Structure formats: structure tokens, C-alpha cells
Amino acid sequence: MTRILVTGASGLLGINFSLFALENGHEVVGTVNQHALREAPFTTMQVNLSRHGSIEKIIETVRPEIILHTAAMAIIDSCEKHPDLSKRINAEVPGDIARISKRLGIRLVHVSTDAVFDGVSGGYVEDDLPNPLSTYALHKLEGEQQVSSQYPEAVIARVNFFGWSLNGNRSLSEWFFNNLSQGKTVKGFTDVYFCPLLVNDLACLLLKMIQKPLRGVYHVLAPVSLSKYEFGCLIARQFNLNEKLIEPMSWKDGGLQAARSPNLILKVDKLCRDLGETPPSPEAGVAGFVDRWQNGYAGRVRSMASSG
Ligand SMILES: NC(=O)c1ccc[n+]([C@@H]2O[C@H](COP(=O)([O-])OP(=O)(O)OC[C@H]3O[C@@H](n4cnc5c(N)ncnc54)[C@H](OP(=O)(O)O)[C@@H]3O)[C@@H](O)[C@H]2O)c1
Q1: CATH 3.40.50.720 is right for the domain spanning 3-167+195-224+264-280
Q2: Closest ligand 1 atom to the C-alpha of 140?
């Protein structure tokens, strides 16, 4: 059993990773901020990471062997509105966590984003030069740089994922599912490509990565890409919902506040080589998403919402 501190345990990745690590025999302590968890099967601690010194106290108290740092200001348009807070949470806090982890000899996996790239050419490998387009992406890149300079042995995982969340509407997959199952029309971007993993598959890969002597940047994504429109159609088909309710459109007509990277196809060869396996495809991920709805997992996650 290993003691793992998961920051952002109320978030989409944090809660799913925490449940998975717990099922796999690890001790989990998760941090939450505004969303306390109800009857979580692991210990939770409240912390506002914007307060200087707050994470130090948590780490000193918990003394974990591993930290998975998922907490972030991860809503892209909120980061445009509140750039100072985004800088603090997405750029500075990772540096603080890396510095303390290095000092205390704690293994650190820091979660970053595919959006550090501008998405002009696609096909990115880990050493390609990032070019963030939004405030969120810029600060996430600065967070990566802080982590790698403070603690070169840390792992930085660039990810994109979907799945069942605490409030039932955090992920793109839930957004498609919720709208389509109510018979509502939605727009699907035909010109934004990505490589999303089911969050539970991502949790499994991250746990394997933690247990191997990896260091540095890894792309931890699906090995094939699709457009957001195609992703919505996959959700519709696998849930037997009406895919004609998804209207194809360009992201440029979507009224978004922050610029989006249109081609976020990232290569995962380094991960496949070092882990000895290929991550699941988006089709397999969506099938797992459907299974988890049918077997009550989605409801179990939602039942932990403190207002639920
Ligand atoms: N979702 C994606 O597809 C995606 C794509 C690429 C990269 N990522 C990265 O993956 C990681 C996890 O993303 P996610 O989608 O799981 O995020 P999320 O669902 O938005 O959750 C964010 C988590 O961070 C916590 N948090 C936010 N501000 C905080 C603060 N000031 N102090 C303490 N905790 C704070 C939240 O706590 P409360 O809710 O309790 O306030 C929550 O637990 C992030 O690093 C994100 O950048 C996500």
C-alpha cells in the first residue's frame, strides 16, 4: 500500500483517480476546495491553493509517498476572466509542489494539458515547441516549466479526458449525453481534433506510470484522434440517442471567449514504448463510459456531491 496525495479530488480526474487507486489497494488522501465530498471512501482535506503556504502544510501533515497534482483552474474561459488567479493556481502552485516534493523525496506526477500546443500542425511529440493560445494554456505551460526546473525527476502528463464527474456536467461527454438524452440540439465542432481518453483509463495509466521509474514529459492520450463532432456522434450511437441532434459547425462560429487549438493530435509513442502498452481508443473509451452509466458507477460518483 502506498500513500497517495491527490490534489483536486473533487475534480473530474481527481475523484476518478482516487476511487481507482483506492480499489487498487492504495491509501488516498484527497484535497478539495469549494466542493466537499459526501461520504467519500478516502480521507479528504479542504485547502485553497491560492493561499501561499497552504499546500506546504498539507504535504507536511500527510507525508505522502506520491503526489498526483490534478488541481487546477481548468475552465478555459474563467482563466481569461481571472488571469491572476489562473497564474497562481496553474503556474505557481505546481512549482511550489515540485519544490516541496523534491525536498521531501516524494514522487510527483503533475497533470498538464494537450492545449500547450497551438494546434496548427498536429502530430506533436513531447519535445516539440509549445505555443499556448489561451491564458489557461500559457499558465499550464509555465506550470510545466516550474515543475521540470524545480524537480527534473517528476513526471509531467499532458492529458485530455472525459468521464463521469461529481456534478454530472463537467466533461464534454456528459454535456453531449445530458443534452441528447433530453432531446436537445447541440453543436459539434468539426474542425477541432483531439485524442480523448476515458478518465478511468487515464487513471489506470497514471497509476502504472507512477509505479515505473519514468521522468519528464509524457503525452497520455488516446492513440487516435477524432473531431468533437465525431466524438458527440460516438456518444449518441453508443447510447442509442439521436445523432441528428448534433449540428456540425466550425469552432470559429461557436462564440468562445478564448482561442482554441484546432488540431490537438499528440503522439503517444514515448508512452507506449516506456509503458509497454497502447492506451485505449476513443471508441473503447466511450464504450467504458456507457458501461459505467449502466452499472451505476456514474451515480456513485454523483452521490458524493455534497449537495446531491
Ligand atoms: N478536463 C480535461 O479534459 C482536461 C484536459 C487537459 C488537461 N486537463 C488537466 O487535468 C487536470 C484535472 O482537470 P479536471 O478536468 O479534473 O479539473 P476540474 O474537474 O475542473 O477540477 C479541478 C479541481 O481543482 C480544484 N481546485 C480548483 N481551484 C482550486 C483552488 N484555488 N484551491 C484548491 N483546489 C482547487 C477543484 O476543487 P473544488 O472543485 O473543490 O473547488 C477541483 O477539485 C487539470 O490539471 C487540468 O488542467 C484537463
Answers
A1: yes
A2: 47
